[in-house]
Amino acid sequence: MKAVILVGGQGTRLRPLTDTIPKSMLPLVNIPFLEHVLKLLKRYSIEEVILSAGVSLDVFKNYFGDGKEYGLKIIYAKEDEPLGTAGAIKNVEKYLDDSTFVVLNGDILTDLNIARLVEYHKSKKALVTITLASVEDPTPYGLVPIDDTGKVITFLEKPSQDEAITDLINAGTYVLEPEILSFIPEGINYSFEKGVFPGMVKRDEGIFGFSPNVYWLDIGTPQKYLKAHHDVLEGEIELNFEGEQIKPRVWVGEDCEISSEANIFGPVVIGNSCQIEASATIFGHTTIGNNCIVGPGAAVSESVLFDGCKVNGASIVKRSILGRGVELDARVHIEDMVIAEEKVKINNDNFNHRLAEEKLDDRSR
Ligand code: GDD
Ligand code: MG
User: Fold this and answer.
1) Counting beta carbons within 10 angstroms of the beta carbon of residue 61, is it exposed (0 to 12), middle (13 to 18) or buried (19 or more)?
2) Contact 275, 294 (CB under 8 A)
3) Taking the domains of the chain in order of start, what are their residue ranges?
4) What 3-state class would DSSP assign to 353?
5) What are the C-alpha distances in Å from 193 to residues 88, 130, 172, 246, 251?
6) How far apart are CA 299 and CA 61, in angstroms?
7) What is the DSSP track for 60-123?
8) What is the pLDDT of residue 355?
9) Band (351; pLDDT cuts 50, 70, 90)
10) Phi and psi dihedrals of 79, rounded to 5?
């Protein structure tokens, strides 16, 4: 079976990280997110994956190549202009054949059993089956109430609080019959969520919802991105990552120098070639990328450091994300969802409020 993964969005809510790395290539426990998705697909007998990307394919191509290493065939499809979630599928029609296929949003962390989803789809003789998740606040998602038979009653993208009549939302994984392609206009921006699905409901075409009881998270905001790390490190979803367990729930990569006087409290993942110096403290739910240095007296907790970060003496990083090559001088204190942009250098004695204010100014310009 073939699968199309949508990875052409702008990742606006994860800026500035996504200014240089597409959302689906952001690291999750030091492995590009999409690699985890590909492994899930492989587990459920998907043979061919079409990556529907935006303007730039290189970062994907350079990493995944033809897909052989993952036991998959990967085809790359470019869009000169964003075509929307459904337009993106029309754009890859030539790579699809006359059989049932799967479409996935490229920012969903899940352990969904795709075989069971496809089985359900076939049993309903559906044209489209939408996987559903149950969430506390449905307003940032597509609302999908279903009837007793699983049929979708309505599809409402980003409902208001008043419109939220169910907690079931579109989980961003679909099984589609090839007929669907004729519902999508060619060459224009068109979405499943505002175009194809509401139209099918209106015309009473076979559109069903499948509600599995599995782990589900959209990683598309800083809070959710950190939550994804938390949940993986807590084992709430089983995901492979690298490193040798040097003490309970502390995984360390190759060629690291970890001082015997450093304090590390799991769950923590540390990449390759890192240096953790004496009296540095790393608290749980932290992932440190490759080639990072955590200096003497520095403390890092509940955070994600991308590759090549340097946290110098007595600096504190809490519940924050440091992009590639970020350097904190001495006694820098950042906490509560600061996202430090790639290669930014933060001077001595800086406190995150100043940083956050500067960032807000930048955003409002
Ligand atoms: N190729 C391509 N072209 N991909 C796109 C485009 C496009 O024009 N626009 C978005 N995508 C990709 C994104 O990269 C992402 O992987 C996926 O489509 C969904 O886009 P998001 O921007 O993450 O949408 P969302 O999270 O606000 O809402 C979607 O996902 C929710 C579940 O997480 C919708 O499908 C909601 O209905 C759903 O509940
Ligand atoms: Mg999303």
Assistant:
1) middle
2) yes
3) 2-230, 244-359
4) helix
5) 13, 11, 10, 46, 40
6) 37
7) HHHHHTTSGGGTSEEEEE--SS--HHHHHHHTTGGG--SS-EEEEETTEEE---HHHHHHHHHH
8) 53
9) confident
10) -125, 130
pLDDT tier, 326 (very low <50, low <70, confident <90, very high otherwise): very high
- CATH level 2 (architecture), domain 2-230: Alpha-Beta Complex (3.90)
Q: Which residues neighbour 310 within 8 Å (Cβ) at sequence distance 6 or greater? A: 292, 293, 295, 326, 327, 328
In this model, does residue 181 exceed pLDDT 70? yes
Task: Return the ligand 1 atom nearest residue 170 CA.
Answer: 39
Which residues are within 8 A (CB) of 251 and not within 5 positions of it... i.e. 6 or more apart?
241, 242, 243, 244, 245, 268, 269, 270
The number of the ligand 1 atom at minimal distance from the alpha carbon of 193 is 37
Dump pLDDT digits (tens) for 44-86: 989 999 999 987 899 999 999 999 999 999 999 999 899 999 9
Average pLDDT, rounded, for the chain: 94
Question: Which among 307, 313, 329, 331 is positioned nearest to 321, based on CA atoms?
Answer: 307
Asked if residues 217 and 110 have their Cβ atoms less than 8 Å apart, the reply is: yes
Total count of residues recorded for the chain: 365
Residue list, ligand 1 pocket, CB within 6 Å:
6-9, 52, 54, 79, 82-85, 88, 105-108, 141-142, 157, 169-170, 172, 193, 218, 220
Q: Where are the alpha helices (DSSP H) in the chain?
A: 17-20, 33-43, 58-64, 84-90, 114-123, 197-202, 222-233, 352-364
In this structure, whether the domain defined by 244-359 belongs to CATH 3.40.720.10 is answered with no
